[in-house]
């Protein structure tokens, strides 16, 4: 019903600052009790649930393939970074979150209805 409303959270001052301590380019942050991974792909930033929807693998320990899919380190299922689609075909769906690069920093949006 209608447009989704987001509450935006500033998570870093810049892309460089955000990924500074993530040697594999995937960092994990916590917003409102949710663990969320963020990664860089072709100049964009993408945010998604930190745990794999299959059996809870830690996606921060996975990697991003050249097509822009996060690959789970446990059973190697693949999920599209932009929409969470399980492109390797097992029928799961990875929750994704919008990311905005603004003048004063990096913001992640969480659906407002989740707050209540
Ligand atoms: S836990 Fe991620 S693919 Fe099985």
Count of DSSP-assigned helices: 1
Strand order of the largest sheet: 2-3-4-8
Overall strand count: 10
**Average pLDDT, all residues:** 93
Could you say how many structural domains there are in total?
A: 1
The structure class reads: mainly beta
Shape: globular
Biggest beta-sheet profile:
4 strands, antiparallel
Short description:
By secondary structure, this protein is mainly beta.
General description of the model:
- This protein has 116 residues and is mainly beta.
- The chain has a single domain, classed as Rieske [2Fe-2S] iron-sulphur domain (Rieske Iron-sulfur Protein, 3-layer Sandwich), CATH 2.102.10.
- Helix content is 4%, strand content 41%.
- The strands form three sheets. The protein has a four-stranded antiparallel sheet. A three-stranded antiparallel sheet has the order 1-10-9.
- A hairpin with a 2-residue loop joins strand 2 and strand 3.
- The chain is globular and about 40 Å long.
- The two termini are 17 Å apart.
- The model has no long low-confidence stretch (mean pLDDT 93).
- The site of FE2/S2 (inorganic) cluster has 9 residues, from loops.
């Amino acid at each position: 019903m209608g447009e989704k409303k987001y509450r935006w959270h500033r998570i870093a001052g810049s892309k460089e600052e955000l990924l500074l301590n993530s040697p594999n380019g995937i960092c994990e942050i916590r917003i409102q009790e949710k663990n969320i991974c963020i990664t860089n792909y072709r100049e964009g930033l993408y945010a998604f649930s930190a745990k794999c929807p299959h059996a809870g693998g830690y996606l921060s320990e996975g990697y991003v393939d050249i097509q822009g899919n996060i690959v789970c380190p446990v059973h190697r299922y693949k999920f599209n970074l932009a929409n969470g689609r399980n492109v390797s075909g097992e029928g799961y769906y990875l929750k994704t979150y919008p990311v905005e690069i603004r003048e004063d920093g990096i913001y992640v949006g969480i659906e407002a209805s989740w707050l209540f």
